[in-house]
Amino acid sequence: MRTASASNSPGELSPGTAVALPHARQFEIHSAQGLPYRLLVAVPPEAPPAAGFPVLVLVDGDALFATALTNARLQGGRPEVSGVGPAVIVGIGYPGAAPFDAERRRQDLLPDVGGADRFLDLIETQLLPMVADLAPIDRARLALAGHSFGGLFTLHALFNRPGLFRSLVAGSPSIWWNERAILAARAQFLRSPAPILRPRLLITVGGEEQKTDPLRFPDRATRLEKARMVENAAEMANSLAASGRLDCEHVVFTGENHVSVIPAMLSRAVAFTLAEPSVRGDSAR
């Protein structure tokens, strides 16, 4: 029979030690405008593929990075099942302890007064070169994922810089924002020359994102009805799939709301963006 030691008697715990995410590092960077960011990067310990590691970039990194990294490690641990190999996971966050910085993310993620374009500049000209200094990366397999305003930002990135990311995941995108102004960007994208690499887009949403109790939460019920999260996501996905300009998938996670859907979205995002092209049946680079 195992006996508890005097220093760790039943009902007592030692002070413990800090827990770190495997192979993850944190950096502080500043934009050209002097704004601070927290950069979270996980480089796998395996040798890189000949073309370099695929890269998954997450906005709202403070909220999404750890879950995405865990999914990448789990799925990458069984590549014969998942098709997912080693990949670099990157989260872009902000100083502070909150998982979402409401004001900073509005400045960066909304295509308003050039904010989203400045953020794309940061990703393209500062962040990706920094990641490339840490590990060899495959620029033909760059991916971007975001949730809510981050999902809207992902659509903005696709429509305005379609050659930057090969795979994109728009989780619960806020298509409702600014009277659905993103639809004008979509129209311009569909009229523009096709990018060299055919984009791949996954749009996800929780099946409960338009539902609440109108008697208990009348104001919220009105907002959800106006936002049309589930319907807007379906309409966007159907329109883009029908255009023939990109490969577009649409997933509704039954039973999930705007917050609970995040882990499900990230699990699917890892599989969608990081599975080997041969496994996806998409061998063209």
TrEMBL record:
Kindly provide the name given to this protein in its UniProt entry: Alpha/beta hydrolase-fold protein
Keyword Hydrolase recorded: yes
Coiled-coil stretches are none
Give the organism the record lists.
Answer: Bosea rubneri
- Give the GO molecular function terms: hydrolase activity
Q: Which InterPro entries match?
A: AB_hydrolase_fold (IPR029058), Esterase-like (IPR000801), Siderophore_Hydrolase_D (IPR052558)
**In the UniProt record, does the keyword Hydrolase occur?**
yes
Q: Which UniProt keywords apply?
A: Hydrolase
Family the entry assigns: Belongs to the esterase D family.
